[in-house]
Amino acid sequence: MRLTVLGSGAACAGNGGNSSGYLVEESNARILLDCGHGVASTLVELGSPDEIDHIFISHMHADHFIDLLPLRFAVTKHLPGLPEPCGHLHLPPGGRASLAKILEAVCFPADFFDVVWHVCEYEPGTPLELADGLTARFAGGVHYIPGWAIRLDGSSSLTFTGDTAPSKEICELARGCDLLLAEATLDAPEHGPVRGHLTALEAAELAEAAAVGRLMLTHFWHDADREAAAHTARSRLDCAVLVAEDSAVVEF
Ligand SMILES: [Zn+2]
Ligand SMILES: [Zn+2]
User: Fold this and answer.
1) From ligand 2's centre to the CA of 144, what distance in Å?
2) What's the whole-model pTM score?
3) Closest ligand to 196 CA?
């Protein structure tokens, strides 16, 4: 399994970076996890915006899906006269209605995405077989709106937390996976009863509790100190700790 970080930023990535986006490649499938600001242009630079078999959106915050709009244009430009959809767009529950409102607001037709992708909403309790020997599973996170972590099992295994505060469900989903791609948005836990993100220490605690092979920290604000986050996580964990940077590639 090969992971390319297309965007490791949070709602404002800064420094020329992108918001959330990750390309996962197996021998028989290419999967895009999230499509935040800047991700479409980066996919175009990689040369194959129309060769994504499955796109998963973790939740309907703009930094995780807004570049579906330019990506759709990139696909139609790449394949003019496209006869039929060339991949699947898997939205979270309620995602279709959210996208419909956006399409109406920007005066795009209601079938804007259906022209290029089979658009559906995943059911978090139902695993999906994406290709021979490659499955996707989901677990609900703790965020300001409903959001889901996504686990891919193929030649190896990856769990992407999406945006979440500490979550037992995500810990169970991630158990024993080879790579945990975990958000580490916060410098310190949020105060008050409403939480929606992790610190680097909490991401490390999640990795430890789930006994994963490796941890990659991601979803950083524009002014985050990524190395400090990595240092914090390494002080807690025995397993390897990576820090996501745009364009980084990991094979595992
Ligand atoms: Zn986010
Ligand atoms: Zn979010």
Assistant:
1) 7
2) 0.97
3) 2
- Tell me, what's the pLDDT at 40? 97
Tell me which residue range forms the domain holding 91: 2-251
| Residue 117: strand, helix, or coil | strand
pLDDT in tens, 142-167: 999 999 999 999 999 999 999 999 99
| 59 alpha carbon – ligand 2 mean position (Å) | 7
Ligand nearest to the CA of 147: 2
pLDDT tens, position by position, 60-76: 999 999 999 999 999 99
What DSSP designation does 9 have? B
CATH of the domain at 140: 3.60.15.10
- In DSSP notation, 14-57 reads -TT--SSEEEEEETTEEEEE---TTHHHHHHHHT-TT--SEEE-
